[in-house]
């Protein structure tokens, strides 16, 4: 990073922020060790995103909608795609309201896990367009309606902290040990790779052993 921000090859995906908030080990397995597995929850999310992931746009008078819009912030070192970005023109034809909209399976979550992702998208758009964005929206499949999220100071702060934590983890080149918690681990698509119960029983040495075994298996598959 220099005075102007991060370089292209230092950018981290906006999607990694959610992994960090879910579990520090998960973000390291995915973004440091390059491991991934799908389960029902991730598969459902992918099916939903296939519907909005085709890059295109729609326009009508004074209103434009971009789908799967590429976004980035060199200042914060982020890169990603926004499901939907809506642009409205003012009466004199200049850029007015800009609103990121994310499509999600499930329903509104009590934690900031989705809101941080949306706020990070807004940071990227603000830098790209030179504007301020006050709010974004979610469309949760189970709720069948849009909900609005205001980007207030508390959410900005939480988002910046999550970006910093994510960068520390993905640039540290080490994977935090597993801490088994049924509420998150039993829903985690990386459960079989992570093996949090085995790691807990045996400590870090088992952790390293399991990771080495997984890497060896993946190498065999590649060859
Ligand atoms: S199984 Fe648990 S500890 Fe392992 S990556 Fe998933 S959430 Fe984290």
Describe the structure.
The radius of gyration is 19 Å and the shape is globular. It is 44% helix and 23% strand. With 223 residues, it is an alpha/beta fold. It contains nine helices and seven strands, in the order βαααββββαββααααα. It has a domain at 8-22 and 37-169: Alpha-Beta Complex (Lambda Exonuclease, Chain A). Iron/sulfur cluster (SF4) binds next to α2, α6 and α7. Residues 23, 25-26, 29, 178-179, 184-185, 188, 190-191, 194, 196 line the site of iron/sulfur cluster.
Architecture blueprint of SSEs:
Elements (H helix, E strand, L loop, with lengths): L11 E2 L1 H8 L1 H8 L8 H11 L5 E5 L2 E11 L4 E12 L5 E10 L8 H17 L5 E6 L4 E6 L2 H20 L9 H4 L5 H4 L1 H7 L1 H19 L1
Parallel strand pairs: 1-4, 5-6
Antiparallel strand pairs: 2-3, 3-4, 4-5, 6-7
Helix pairs in contact: 1-2, 1-4, 1-5, 4-5, 8-9
The small-molecule ligands in this entry are: iron/sulfur cluster
Number of strands: 7
Uncertain residue ranges: none
Under the CATH scheme, the architecture of the domain at 8-22 and 37-169 is: Alpha-Beta Complex
Supply Rg.
19 Å
Biggest sheet features: 7 strands, mixed
Helix/strand class: alpha/beta
> Residue share in helices?
40-55%
Percent of residues in beta strands: 15-25%
Ends distance: 36 Å
* SS summary, helix count: 9
Order of helices and strands: EHHHEEEEHEEHHHHH
- Please state the overall shape, judged from the principal axes of the Cα atoms: globular
In the CATH scheme, the class of the domain at 8-22 and 37-169 would be Alpha Beta
The CATH topology of the domain at 8-22 and 37-169 = Lambda Exonuclease, Chain A
